[in-house]
Design a protein that fits this description.
Length: about 725
């Protein structure tokens, strides 16, 4: 049946297309023939139809003959098999033994095993296929065009354990909500930084009990913290920890699969038709805020975040993620294409905003990293002009106090690689930077003792993450006349001020950054750290080490990395296992030295035609016993063989000594922070390519995933 469109006139300038009839299927053709046939059987009697449907007598005779022939052939084949069977039996009886039946060869499926990937691995592989740095850029102030995700994962609800705490020697009944808060306190380790330090414990206990009383109410029997005994709940917590450590391999595998299922659901988003990985997709569970160092809010209760507090950022044409918490719904849905977060909410401790971002390996983060390092490279072109600006005001007698403070702060940020520092509220940790330094944070030494100049300062304050920054600098010896001017300016800014007053009291971070933008578009104080870190790494990395062993190249790289970490004050606390590890390395060093002495003796013995001590059977030896005689031979060696092994062992000892020194030097230095945030990865990649050092020896997998755009850097790259 034709539609009206078949008869519509063709558009101007176009001929009417020939309309083809659709092909008729065999089934349809058969049906049509049956219906339209003139030889219809409707008028034929039933008896005649039966005769018509039966086969002819000739055909029946032919089929019977075929069946007889087939039966004869089968009988002949059967007789033949019986005769052959009798012959084989008689021959076997003559020989007196049976001939073994031929074994079928097993088809061996040799070759590499096919690795089955999990859903998470498949998603990761698909994500890496997108080369965002080769894609056309998005318009200004637009981070994405389309975005779809699964929302955020919420921690499991609390399950009461019904173990009672004690108050004044008696058991106390608690509601599930009260029990949960009490369990948070019982989970804190008694020897940890919060409860192990008397000063911190006092603040922690006070903040905890203030929030605990809100859940208890005014009529509850618990009135004083000193009479509270969390021992029974702590025993349960320790028992659960022990049970968790004692889990079987099967139990761990079940838990791993559950985590992978959650990860496969929540850990990925589709952004502009590409798969992107999320960094954090589970909302932080409730608990007690710990903080770093002597934080004034340590011990405060972090309340459970509900879906109504969460704002989701999703494309307006995409599917809205389902809220998987029964009886709840998302707070707000927005479409903000100029931001890169997927979800946000407010936390109650610091009243700050928390976000769900894409992972460090995502295109969002990658574009930000690339732009950051390019801005630092741009600073290299302006650095001479900027330094001339602040050096002029440093030494100028006519400059105002404001200009002198600004110039001195710029020098400190540039040369000493200090952070700019922001103002802190009373309920925040007392961490400072350049602009928030106080008089108590600096000491002046103009005595000139111990061969030092009369222009020495010592900086002592808590930096980011409450890490102590302790540094003594001889400004006169290290920086000459500019250093002397800085010393005099700092001393002048501190004079007639109390210890708790700011050194740069006339200057704010905003005013400093405004001036920097006048010198270079888009410049801020934090760009100096990226510039100094990348520039220092490039200058400290030795070239022409292509013939060195790989282990030696890694040590040389770590040495350059360590200098960057020291410049940026990236510290870490020395672990408990460090001393044990160094003691084991010391034992190994002594063994190496003894082995070398023994081989030197063996050279002299072989030269005189004497035998040397051979290696024993190592089957039942432990690892250390095997190592102790790893230098010995299984057979009597020649002089050349001993000399060759001696040279190898001496080179091994040299590398091992460097490893020990490298480990000891880096025991309190965090090398990873500068790799992740401050050093241009292209400097590392270019150096590795020039000197044939495998990139995985200096960049862990997480860093290689974070900087895929840097892996194609050419060998002649310069920061």
């Amino acid at each position: 049946m034709s539609s009206q469109d078949d008869f519509a006139p063709p558009p101007p300038g176009k001929k009417r297309e020939k309309i083809l009839k659709p092909p008729v299927s065999n089934r349809m053709r058969l049906a049509q023939n049956t219906i339209d046939s003139s030889d219809s059987d409707d008028d034929i009697p039933l008896s005649a139809l039966k005769q018509k449907g039966s086969a002819s007598p000739v055909k029946v005779k032919k089929e019977e003959k075929k069946k007889k022939k087939k039966k004869k052939k089968e009988k002949k084949a059967k007789r033949k098999r019986e005769v052959e069977g009798k012959r084989s039996k008689s021959s076997s009886s003559r020989s007196g033994r049976k001939k073994p039946a031929a074994k079928r060869k097993k088809v061996s499926n040799k070759g590499p095993k096919v690795k089955t990937l999990t859903n998470v691995q498949i998603m990761d592989t698909a994500m890496k296929a997108y080369r965002w740095w080769d894609a056309p850029p998005l318009p200004d102030n637009q981070a994405w065009r389309q975005m779809e995700h699964y929302g955020v994962n919420f921690p499991a609800p609390y399950e009461p354990h019904n173990v009672k705490m004690r108050y004044d020697g008696r058991d106390v009944d608690l509601t599930p909500a009260q029990e949960e808060v009490a369990t948070f306190y019982a989970e804190m380790p008694l020897d940890g930084p919060q409860l192990g330090d008397p000063k911190t414990k006092k603040v922690f206990d006070k903040n905890f009990f203030t929030d605990f009383k809100k859940y208890l109410g005014s009529k509850h029997v618990i009135k004083k913290f000193e009479l509270c005994d969390f021992g029974p709940i702590r025993d349960l917590v320790n028992k659960r920890r022990a049970e968790r450590k004692a889990r079987t391999k099967e139990e761990k595998e079940v838990e791993k699969q559950q985590k992978l299922e959650i990860s496969a659901r929540y850990a990925y988003a589709i952004v502009d038709d590409h798969i992107e990985k999320l960094g954090n997709f589970t909302i932080e569970p409730p608990g007690l805020f710990r903080g770093r160092g002597a934080h004034p809010k340590t011990g405060t209760l972090k309340t459970r975040v509900q879906p109504e507090q969460v704002i989701l950022n999703v494309g307006d044409t995409e599917m809205v993620p389902k809220c998987h918490v029964p009886g709840h719904a998302w707070g707000t849905l927005v479409e903000k294409k100029d931001v890169t977060w997927l979800a946000t909410w407010n936390e109650n401790v610091m009243n700050g905003t928390k976000y769900v971002w894409l992972a460090a390996s995502s295109s969002f983060k990658g574009r930000g990293d690339l732009a950051k390092y390019e801005k630092a490279r741009k600073l290299k072109k302006y650095i001479v002009k900027i330094r001339a600006d602040y050096e002029r005001n440093l030494q100028s007698k006519s400059a105002t106090v404001f200009k002198k403070q600004r110039a001195t702060a710029m020098w400190v940020i540039d040369r000493l690689a200090l952070r700019a520092g922001n103002e802190k509220d009373e309920d925040e940790a007392d961490t400072v930077g350049t602009c928030s330094l106080r008089v108590e944070h600096i000491l002046f030494d103009d005595s000139g003792k111990d061969g030092k100049s009369k222009y020495v300062i010592t900086l002592d304050f808590l930096g980011k993450d409450s890490m102590r920054h302790l540094q003594t600098i001889d400004l006169g010896e290290r920086y000459g006349t500019i250093g002397i001017s800085v010393f005099n300016n700092l001393k002048k800014f501190c004079s007639k001020k109390k210890k708790d007053k700011e050194i740069f009291d006339k200057l704010s971070v905003g005013e400093l950054n405004d001036h920097l933008k006048e010198l270079m578009p888009g410049l801020s104080a934090k760009v100096f750290r990226t510039y100094n870190a990348s520039n220092t790494l490039e200058n400290e990395l030795p070239d022409n080490v292509i013939n060195e062993p790989i282990g030696q190249k890694v040590i040389l790289y770590n040495e350059a990395n360590r200098k960057v970490a020291i410049l940026c004050n990236h510290q870490k606390t020395v672990s408990k296992a460090f001393n044990e590890g160094m003691a084991k390395m010391g034992e190994k060093l002594e063994i190496y030295q003894k082995q070398i002495e023994e081989l030197k003796t063996d050279v002299r013995r072989v030269r005189k035609g004497k035998e040397v001590k051979l290696a024993k059977d190592t089957t039942n030896m432990d690892k250390m016993e095997k190592f102790k005689q790893s230098h010995r031979f299984k057979r009597q060696p020649s002089e050349e063989q001993v000399k060759k092994k001696l040279a190898t062992l001496e080179q091994r000892l040299k590398t091992f000594e460097l490893q020990m020194k490298n480990k000891d030097d880096n025991k309190s230095v965090a090398l990873g922070t500068s790799k992740i945030n401050y050093m241009d990865p292209r400097v590392t990649v270019a150096w590795c390519k020039r000197n044939e050092c495998p990139i995985d020896k200096v960049f862990a997998r997480a860093l290689r995933d974070k900087f895929p755009w840097a892996m194609s850097t050419k060998t002649d790259y310069k920061f």
